[in-house]
Amino acid sequence: MKVGHRRDSRPVPADLLDDPRLEGLATWGAELAAAGLSPGESGNLSCRAAEGFLITRTGVPLATIANEDWVLVTGIEHDADGPVVTSRGLHEPSKDASVHAVLYERRPTATSVFHLHVGRLDDLQRLGVPATSTYHPAGTRESKEEIERFLDQHPDTRYFVLIDHGIVAWGETVAETATLVDRYQAALAEGG
Ligand SMILES: [Zn+2]
Predict the structure, then answer these.
(1) Residue 102: what are its φ and ψ, rounded to 5°?
(2) How many A from CA of 166 to the centre of ligand 1?
(3) Cα 115 to ligand 1 centroid, rounded to whole Å
(4) Rounded to whole angstroms, how far apart are CA atoms 116 and 90?
(5) Which uninterrupted H or E stretch holds 160?
């Protein structure tokens, strides 16, 4: 699948980078990486902004998120060839930006989204974590529609498995989102 970009390569506006939530996300990024939850420098973190959302750039090591690693995504459209992402920043946004976009669209109170390629997705499902039913590559229209369907069916779910892909957590604060990830990792550790 081809991902199209409409990219404004100027830096993200300084007032957005002053947002204290970014510091919180960077701190959590380092903790998640230290806990082994960012295999192969995967995973992406975001928070809602006035015109869209700020998300980590593609290929960022979560252990060391710097100011220049944030990208402002202001829109994602789907045309016949695939998604077209409109963004501003020094880098391309995470390839999974569309996963975050669906959450911000469908969950108006979400202010922060974590998406991680953690292992043991089957074990999480055995612990009762709900999961989407069919795998589609992130960014495709099918993936967007699958997540929308899932969210419609699970109005109270803030942590779920994207089947054969990873996990998604969202919260009304960065700390709430991070705590959800922590809680389920702890449950996995206890479950053996
Ligand atoms: Zn992913």
Answers:
(1) -65, -40
(2) 6
(3) 6
(4) 23
(5) strand 159-162
Which structural domains are found in the chain, ordered by start? 4-191 (3.40.225.10)
Pair type for strands 82-88 and 4-8: parallel
Centre of ligand 1 to C-alpha 140, Å, is 12
Q: Residue 135: CB partners within 8 Å, gap ≥ 6?
A: 163, 164, 165
- CA 51 – ligand 1 centroid, Å: 23
Both tokens of residue 18? 């002053």
Beta strands 166-171 and 159-162 are antiparallel
Amino acid at 29: G
Q: Are 92 and 98 in contact (CB under 8 A)?
A: no
pLDDT band at 192 (very low <50, low <70, confident <90, very high): low
CA 162 to ligand 1 center in whole angstroms: 9
C-alpha 80 – ligand 1 centre gap (Å):
22
Q: Please answer whether residues 33 and 61 qualify as being in contact, where contact means their C-beta atoms are separated by less than 8 angstroms.
A: yes
Instruction: State the average pLDDT over residues 180-192.
Output: 89
Query: Distance, CA 163 to ligand 1 centroid (Å)?
Result: 11
- Predicted confidence at residue 75, as pLDDT, reads 95
